[in-house]
């Protein structure tokens, strides 16, 4: 997962690294540029270490700007590789990384799970091949559960030769918009980096109610479910839980979810629970946030947390930026943080 080689030498180096070429088998041009055999083996060593660092950070679902991967690869490359890994593994959507995945990459949880379902259908894998939590979250957002999955597959197979020749039939039977689901009042609503052209296509009603669900269905906003160290939660019934296979990949957040269901207490804060489980606090916060998304945990609201949430930044007055030719215009730059929308319509109008 390195940057695209810009020169012939870089292309040769990358090709030779992938083929694990010995010094004697290197192209003469490379041998001349590297000078010595020891220098070549040092290049191989550094590349191998970089790959292991990136692989470790991805498996731990670490944020690029806080992990060692930032020393060996670019931010965009890191998250692109992570999303490829998650898709291959049919893993849970990385909500705790939504600031980049949703806002910058424009990968919504709904689209992620639709693509996942399509891949499973295309490869004619059974519904049980989707891990428990991924299946439950996909059901929440797409409305596709076991029965719906089987129904779509039966429709595809009924087309016989057409299905064998064109697997995209399954994609046409998947939903185009997320289903309705409950939204808690303490959730945050964040804008993605949408373009000026997308902004111009918004209707007056959408602009007047920019913090409403209509923009979520168009993939222009995503929800932030904030969990703080001193928050407390009540675990409710696991309604909507899908009993499929256990995940075969490493996911610290999924592993913590089971522990949360077993040992959580209304009297214990998230920080205290992390100490009890000897778990990483940020990962436990991500696990608790996911449980709230699916309605498996209820946040116990106290006045202090309400006051704290009310101090979250509102949408800035000037959110449009335009370059000289207007072709790459976007709302919010990649460098800026996610914007949290206010809940009042008048406030939203003023910001626009």
UniProtKB/TrEMBL annotation:
InterPro entries: FAM91, FAM91_N_dom. Residues 17-213, 215-299 form the FAM91 N-terminal domain. Residues 327-336 have a biased composition (Polar residues). This is FAM91 N-terminal domain-containing protein. Residues 317-352 are annotated as: Disordered. It comes from the Eukaryota. It comes from Ananas comosus var. bracteatus (red pineapple).
């Amino acid at each position: 997962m390195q940057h695209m080689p810009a020169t012939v030498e870089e292309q040769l180096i990358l090709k030779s690294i992938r083929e694990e070429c010995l010094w004697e088998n290197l192209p003469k041009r490379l041998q001349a540029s590297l000078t010595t055999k020891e220098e070549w083996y040092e290049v191989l060593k550094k590349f191998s270490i970089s790959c292991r660092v990136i692989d470790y950070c991805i498996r731990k679902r670490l944020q690029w700007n806080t992990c060692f991967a930032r020393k060996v690869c670019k931010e965009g490359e890191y998250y692109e590789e992570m999303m490829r890994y998650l898709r291959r593994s049919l893993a849970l959507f990385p909500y705790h990384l939504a600031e980049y995945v949703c806002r910058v990459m424009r990968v919504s949880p709904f689209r992620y799970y639709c693509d996942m379902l399509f891949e499973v259908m295309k490869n004619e894998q059974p519904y049980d091949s989707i891990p428990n939590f991924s299946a439950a979250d996909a059901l929440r957002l797409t409305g596709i559960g076991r029965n719906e999955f089987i129904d779509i597959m039966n429709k595809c197979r009924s087309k016989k030769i057409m299905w064998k020749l064109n697997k995209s039939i399954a994609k046409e039977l998947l939903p185009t918009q997320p289903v309705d689901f409950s939204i808690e009042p303490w959730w945050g609503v964040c804008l993605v980096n949408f373009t000026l052209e997308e902004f111009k296509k918004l209707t007056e009603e959408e602009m007047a109610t920019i913090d409403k669900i209509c923009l979520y269905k168009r993939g222009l906003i995503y929800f932030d479910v904030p969990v703080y160290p001193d928050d407390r939660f009540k675990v409710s019934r696991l309604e909507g839980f899908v009993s499929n296979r256990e995940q075969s990949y490493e996911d610290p957040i999924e592993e913590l979810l089971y522990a949360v269901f077993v040992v959580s207490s209304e009297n214990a804060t998230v920080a205290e629970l992390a100490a009890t489980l000897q778990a990483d606090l940020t990962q436990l916060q991500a696990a608790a946030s996911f449980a709230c998304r699916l309605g498996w945990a209820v946040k116990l609201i106290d006045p202090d947390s309400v006051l704290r949430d009310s101090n979250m930044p509102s949408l800035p007055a000037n959110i449009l930026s335009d370059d000289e030719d207007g072709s790459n215009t976007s709302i919010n730059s990649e460098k800026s943080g996610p914007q949290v929308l206010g809940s009042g319509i008048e406030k939203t109008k003023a910001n626009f």
